[in-house]
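C-alpha cells please, single chain.
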Amino acid sequence: MTDKEREATRFLVYTLHLSRDGEEWHMKVDLEDGSVFMDVKFKMGVPFHFLSFDKVTKMTSVIELRNDHFIEKLTSDKDGVIMQLDVDTYRDGDFVIATQTKDGATETQRLRKL
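Here you go.
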C-alpha cells in the first residue's frame, strides 16, 4: 500500500458478516458509509478472487479452517507487483483477532464482535 492508501484505511469502520451453509461460506463486508466492499461465497481450500478497497488491486484468497482459526493465504496483484500474506484469524472472547504476516513483519487487528 502507498502511504495515501494506508492512511485512507487507517480508521476504516466496517462490519464483517460470516455465515456457513454446509460446505459453502458467505463473507460480506459492509462499510460505514453503507457501501459493500466484499460479498463472496467460497469453500475452504478453494481459491476465490475479489478487488481490494482501492478497486484496482486483484486479490486471491485461499482459506482453511484449523483448530478454530481461519488460516488464509492472500495474494495481491497491483500493476503486476505480486505480494503474498499469511493471515491467521480467530475469535478471542468478544474480539476477532487477525494477524497478517509478510516477510517476517506482522500486523495485528483486534475487531470487536457485535
